[in-house]
Write a structure and sequence with these properties.
Blueprint: E1 3-8, H1 13-24, E2 29-35, H2 40-50, E3 54-57, H3 62-71, E4 77-80, H4 81-89, E5 96-99, H5 107-115, E6 119-122, H6 125-141, E7 145-148, H7 151-159, H8 162-165, E8 178-185, H9 195-199, H10 203-206, H11 216-224, H12 226-239, E9 246-250, E10 256-262, E11 267-271, H13 277-285, H14 316-327, H15 329-347, H16 355-368, H17 378-400
Parallel strand pairs: 1-2, 1-5, 2-3, 3-4, 5-6, 6-7, 8-9
Antiparallel strand pairs: 8-10, 10-11
The chain binds nicotinamide-adenine-dinucleotide and magnesium ion.
Length: 401
């Protein structure tokens, strides 16, 4: 049966890889809906090419986009803003939601997809960092299926026994002998550079990832290793393990995408060329397999695979993520929010790359003094996120003063 897919964040890097796969397997998948935020010309071309039934654009662009589609004789329902994206995420015609919006902006639609019992291909790690317990509960209560496409988490998923893969309540790690998860990290463009060199880095240098081609925000997060910190939090929620059972190991080649260690000493790994089309294809077809078009891994051509311990003095954000996890949900929401503000300020050339960690740490400290309750509802989460954004913005102003 054809799977009907909504690609949220269709104009981004994950959107590109997903749509390439959907185009190559057009008989198995129908592109039912798309969303885009800024590159609306690109979104329009995607509408011409894939002829979805529905499309979501920012509220202010609904009328002009609808007129453009009409002039091109495309009969597509145009919806606007966050409410429009949420409406698509829970549309009864949609089987699968690809959650590929970047940042906190992806949370409402990802949560809506879980509440509507969809099959969710999760790229939007920030949704779990902000609302892990809520997301996992919504998946469980509504019989949704959560398939990670972040490459590390997809690798771990593939290395877990089928019984755990298919149990949304995720209570069986111990019974199945899972001792530890190993998240691999490339180290990004500054792995072999000093803290001082990182301090002087331009935006262009920071987004120039050695192994992966990705959106701007995640590329900068990779340069500071905040990305691995967010992934640590993502993994803890997805696989229901404490932070102490998840290890980060530097692996600059990005060939092993992550590993699961079992009590008998076995360590299972998933390997492949660093190309997001592999994890996305895995999740699209799960539990079957489809061709992804990814360059096969040539083991004969591989040089040595290296593994080292992360330098937490240089990559402060990774330490902050562990501390935030130990502290709880308020802290992980605050860390994510502060980081989004700090990354935006770095892109605007207001602050240095290394200031991102300083802003994040100060915001966490200031947040800890607010004596707030741990949020139970999405509105409370968004309120904490907003407060942390204000604190981070104030921090940036203090830095600039
Ligand atoms: P990107 O910047 O290339 O694309 C982001 C998408 O989100 C675009 O379609 C954009 O229009 C949309 N968007 C941005 N702001 C929005 C808003 N306020 N409201 C609605 N839509 C908005 O990002 P990406 O690299 O594709 O990453 C997307 C997500 O996937 C991120 O959470 C990232 O961490 C995760 N991820 C990406 C990769 C990768 O290789 N790119 C790998 C693993 C995980
Ligand atoms: Mg990743």
């Amino acid at each position: 049966m054809t799977q009907r897919i909504a690609v949220l964040g269709a104009t981004g890097s994950i959107g590109d890889s997903t749509l390439a796969l959907l185009a190559a397997h057009a008989t198995d998948f129908e592109v039912y809906a798309l969303s885009g935020h800024s590159r609306l010309d690109k979104l329009f071309e995607l509408c011409q090419r894939f002829k979805p039934k529905r499309v979501a654009v920012p509220s202010a662009a609904v009328d002009s986009f609808a007129q453009r589609l009409q002039a091109a004789k495309l009969d597509i329902d145009v919806v606007g803003g966050e409410a429009g994206i949420v409406d698509i995420a829970q549309d009864s015609q949609v089987d699968t939601v690809v959650a590929a919006i970047v940042g906190a902006a992806g949370l409402p639609s990802t949560l809506a997809a879980a509440k509507a019992g969809k099959r969710i291909l999760l790229a939007n790690k920030e949704a779990l960092v902000m609302a892990g317990p809520l997301m996992m509960q919504a998946v469980k209560d509504n019989n949704a299926t959560l398939l990670p496409i972040d490459s590390e988490h997809n690798a771990i998923f593939q290395c877990l026994p089928r019984a755990i893969q298919q149990d949304n309540s995720q209570i069986h790690q111990q019974e199945h002998g899972v001792r530890k998860l190993w998240l691999t990290a490339s180290g990004g463009p500054f792995l072999h550079q000093s803290y001082e060199q990182m301090q002087a880095a331009s935006v262009a240098q920071a987004v120039n990832h050695p192994n992966w081609s990705m959106g701007q925000k995640i590329s900068i997060d990779s340069a500071t290793m905040m990305n691995k910190g967010l992934e640590l939090i993502e993994a803890a929620h997805l696989f229901d393990l404490p932070e102490s059972q998840i290890e980060v190991v530097m692996h600059p080649q990005s060939i092993i995408h992550s590993m699961v260690e079992y009590s008998d000493g076995s360590v299972l790994a998933q390997l492949g060329s660093p190309d997001m089309k592999t994890p996305i294809a895995h999740a699209l077809a799960y539990p079957e397999r489809i061709a992804s078009g990814v360059q096969p891994l040539d083991l004969f051509a591989l040089a040595a695979l290296e593994f080292t311990r992360p330098d937490l003095e240089k990559f402060v954000c990774l330490r902050l993520a562990r501390e935030a996890m130990q502290s709880g949900l308020l802290a992980t929401i605050a860390l994510n929010a502060a980081n989004e503000i700090a990354v935006a300020a770095f892109i605007d050339e207001q602050v240095k790359l290394t200031d991102i960690a300083l802003i994040n740490e100060q915001t966490l400290d200031n947040m800890a003094q607010q004596s707030l309750q741990s949020p139970k509802h999405i509105d409370d989460i968004i309120a904490v996120d907003q407060l942390a954004r204000q604190l981070a913005t104030a921090q940036i102003q203090a830095l600039l003063a």
